[in-house]
Amino acid sequence: MFKVKVPATSANMGPGFDCIGIALDLYNEVEVYESDKPLHFIWECEEEEVPEKENFIYTSMMDVFKEHDFPIPNVKVIARKCNIPMVRGLGSSSAAIVAGLTLAYALMGKDFDKDLLAYKAWVIEGHPDNVVPCFLGGMTISVMDEGKPYTTHVPIEDRVKFMAVIPPYKTETKQSREVLPKDYTRADCIQNVSRASMMINAFNLKDYHLLRTAFGERIHQPYRLPLLKDAAYVFELFKENGAIGEFMSGSGSTLMGVFLDDCQDRKLVIEEKLKAIDPLFRVELLNVDRFGVVLSKI
Question: Does this model's pTM top 0.85?
Answer without folding.
Answer: yes
